[in-house]
Amino acid sequence: MYLMISKYLVPLAEVDAVREAHLAFLEGLEAQNLVVTAGRQDPPVGGVVVLDVDDEARAREIISQDPYVVRGVAEYSATGWVPTRGALKDYPKV
């Protein structure tokens, strides 16, 4: 799994103008069983998308298509992660 942690690069109003397209993008990834979970940080300075992929190159390839990235309102960092406790411990591999 990869934690894709975004940082907004523009004021929140500009991010929100792209939010509908971003959410549609995530919905498409969910349909492909690539998104485990996602959400906005609090305070809203960025967000987190947990991708069910095995390598960073694939995670970056996927997230590069996010409308937030395409439109330049956010950037993502990638952190590999293996859940060993809690609800995601036995998360099924697709």
TrEMBL record:
Residues 1-77 form the YCII-related domain. Coiled coil: none annotated. It comes from the Bacteria. Pfam families: YCII. InterPro entries: Dimeric_a/b-barrel, YCII. Belongs to the YciI family. This is Uncharacterized protein YciI.
